[in-house]
Specification:
By secondary structure, this protein is an alpha+beta fold. The chain has one domain. It is built from one helix and eight strands; from the N terminus they run ββαββββββ. Strands 1, 2, 3, 4, 7 and 8 form a six-stranded antiparallel sheet that branches. The longest helix is centred in the middle third of the chain and has 18 residues. It is globular, with a radius of gyration of 14 Å. The two termini are about 15 Å apart. About 20% of the residues are buried.
Length: about 100
């Protein structure tokens, strides 16, 4: 089973910190790899239009952000960058295509 996950957090998706799944906003599942890749490419295209900044790791983790979208962190006396992350999984594990 393939999954394309969209998350929004104050860390890039490849960190997968404990509790990262609490930041997931949507999860789309696919039986077929080609349908998963097609959906992934569509989501990436949408985010590329919305966000100027992008980075990728291992061809399965994608992060998008805008310099103006930050979260005020009172505990750390700083502003934290908000990232829009896409993760491609296969059988629950990161999947490089």
């Amino acid at each position: 089973m393939y999954e394309v996950i969209y998350m929004k957090a104050d860390f890039e998706p490849w960190w997968m910190f404990e509790g990262w799944e609490e930041e997931v906003l949507s999860r789309q599942t696919f039986i077929d790899e080609s349908n998963a890749i097609k959906f992934l490419e569509e989501r990436l295209s949408e985010l590329r239009v919305k966000y100027k900044n992008e980075t990728m790791k291992k061809n399965c983790f994608f992060a998008f952000w805008s310099e103006s979208e930050k979260l005020n962190c009172e505990a750390c006396s700083d502003d934290l960058q908000i990232y829009h992350g896409i993760i491609l999984l296969f059988k629950g594990k990161p999947y490089s295509r």
